[in-house]
Design a protein that fits this description.
Bound molecules: pyridoxal-5'-phosphate
Radius of gyration: 24 Å
CATH architecture of the largest domain: Alpha-Beta Barrel
Oligomer: single chain
Number of helices: 12
Strand content: 15-25%
Number of strands: 21
Length: about 400
């Protein structure tokens, strides 16, 4: 028996989104349908392709599967992306990388996050590629790699203005030489991350791009000559082909969502939909309220349906009075209060019965409610809502 509230994850949508992005990366000038990028058919190559191959195929894709693949399930999504030709997968920390390896992922796995000093063994036992973000991380990795008598492949991160992780772009002459002289570290790539890629009006995006290119030149002058550069998250890759470099790092786009407020003509399919079933239908008399605080008081006879999904499942309390769910192809407003395990919707005038399907996010009979709409209704971003789809909700993979 599974609970009535489930998340359906369409892995083929994710694979097709990856291919759509790969086709887009071949550029508008390409007249022919794109071949799958190198590394397809599950034949993941641990080595970066030679430069000529990259140029012919467009930049390669680092599929971002951190935070349980944005709530979609890292194991299943990781394998699907590998099948579809992602060159590399990226996750937040070593534990996530180990989970991907345990699932059978063979592609290179880049760990984005800052590393603790003490828990580095997983990098070696599970062949993960860490990000070096600070001089002290470089020193700790060098020591660990020497202890393991191996050369550790790493990516080096430059902070070009976001002021989060990475070596400051304006201090490289002081920090890079030690990394360059670390005999047990092989720097495969240099990368940065944009703070404002989703803000079409600001100028920081261009500033960061210029700083990154200068930093790459400086790193190279200081003795590190990585084979690749990468910078673009979903928004950046949509915006500016000058930041495609050798790899791009889409997350949200792979899951079929364009980062707001951007628009795109890419043919993407949202991969995750949320479904439930009505467990109870009841009438309310004029003057009565529903839910905690009785915040919704009706002035006419109303019909309320109870949906067995609440904030413990990831539904935000602010959806009460702001959001809707689909029943029988129509929007039923969320009323009363989103409770821990239940939500009430107003189905007045609709022919609704216990057992009827409710779509919380997704499509039903031609109507749809997307994560972008839902997040806009409550003032957050689709990323947050995807990650909050509760662990209690079973993921069903199609
Ligand atoms: C999460 C993340 C991405 C992907 O971001 P999207 O906006 O989902 O495309 C890319 N790079 C880094 C470093 C990230 O942390």
């Amino acid at each position: 028996m599974i609970r009535p509230t489930v998340a359906r994850v369409d892995l083929q949508a994710i694979e097709s989104n990856l291919r759509a992005i790969a086709a887009f990366l071949l550029g508008p000038r390409s007249p022919v349908a794109p071949p799958p990028p190198p590394g397809g058919d599950g034949e993941a190559s641990p080595e970066p392709a030679p430069h000529s191959t990259r140029a012919a195929a467009g930049p390669r894709i680092i599929g971002v599967v951190k935070a349980n693949a944005y709530g979609h399930g890292a194991r299943e999504v990781g394998l699907a992306l590998e099948r579809a030709g992602a060159a590399v997968l990226a996750c937040a920390d070593i534990e996530e990388g180990i989970a991907l390896r345990d699932a059978g992922v063979r592609a290179p796995i880049l760990v984005f996050g800052a590393l603790g000093i003490s828990d580095l063994d997983g990098l070696f036992t599970h062949t993960l590629t860490p990000t070096i973000s600070t001089p002290s991380a470089a020193a700790a990795l060098q020591q660990a790699a020497a202890r393991h008598a191996t050369v550790l492949r790493c990516h080096l991160k430059i902070d070009t203005g976001m002021n989060r992780l990475g070596f400051r772009h304006d201090n490289l002459a002081r920090t890079i030489p030690e990394v360059a002289s670390s005999r047990n570290l092989a720097i495969d790539a240099v990368y940065t991350h944009f703070a404002t890629a989703d803000d079409p009006d600001g100028d920081m995006f261009a500033v960061q791009r210029e700083r990154f290119e200068r930093a790459c030149a400086e790193v190279s002058a200081l003795g590190i000559r990585p084979a690749s550069r990468h910078a673009a998250n979903s928004a950046a890759l949509l915006r500016d082909e000058r930041v495609w470099y050798d790899f791009v790092r889409p997350g949200l786009l792979l899951y079929g969502i364009v980062p707001p407020p951007l628009a795109s003509t890419l043919r993407l399919r949202p991969a995750l939909s949320l479904h439930s079933r009505i467990v109870h239908v009841k009438g309310m008399r004029p003057g009565e309220g529903t839910g905690y605080g009785l915040k919704t008081v009706v002035d006419r006879p109303a019909t309320i349906a109870v949906v067995p999904a609440g904030y413990a499942d990831g539904l935000d309390r602010r959806l009460a009075g702001a959001g809707a769910m689909l029943v029988r192809g129509r929007r039923a407003p969320i009323v009363g209060s989103v409770c821990m395990d239940m939500t009430t919707i107003d189905v007045t005038g609709m022919d609704v019965y216990p057992g009827d399907e409710v779509v919380i996010v997704g499509e039903q009979d031609g109507a749809s409610i997307g994560m972008r709409e839902m997040s806009a209704a409550i003032g957050t971003i689709p990323y947050e809502l995807l990650c909050r789809v509760g662990t209690r909700i079973e993921r069903l993979y199609d």
